[in-house]
Structure formats: C-alpha cells, structure tokens
Amino acid sequence: MLLTYFLFASFTTAPETSVYLCNSSGGKRYHFSENCRGLSNCQHPIIKVSLQEAKKRGKTICGYED
Question: Is 17 exposed, middle or buried (0-12, 13-18, 19+ CB in 10 A)?
C-alpha cells in the first residue's frame, strides 16, 4: 500500500516551471529563456526562479515571449 502511494505521488507531481528575471528593482518581466532579447539590457545578475515566485513578485511575461 505504501508503494502504491509513492507511485501515485510521483505521477501526480507536476514539474515546476522555471523562469528568468533581471534581479533589479526596476525589473517587471519574467522570461522563459535565459537568452531572451528582453534580458539583453539587464545590467544586474539574471536569476532563475519558479514561475510561481515570479508571479508572486508581481512580474508579467516578457512581450517577446507572449
């Protein structure tokens, strides 16, 4: 029974989507690709976070990826 639980849990866990942010106070967008041209002017570190975290921070999708 315990084995059944672990098998079920492993199939129902959705993979977490990662996105990229320009780690600056003025950054407003998230990007699915680290090489997105929307990040080309970023003068700060580019960080990888979950999509959920990016949305929690108030970020919206980059217009180049929409």
Answer: exposed
For residue 37, which of 66, 2, 64 has the smallest C-alpha distance? 64
The two tokens of residue 41 are 């002017």
Condensed to tens digits (0 to 9), the pLDDT of residues 13-66 reads: 567 899 999 999 999 999 999 999 999 999 999 999 999 999 999 999 999 987
Task: Give the chain's length.
Answer: 66
Q: What backbone phi and psi angles, to 5 degrees, belong to 34?
A: -65, -20
Residue 49: strand, helix, or coil: strand
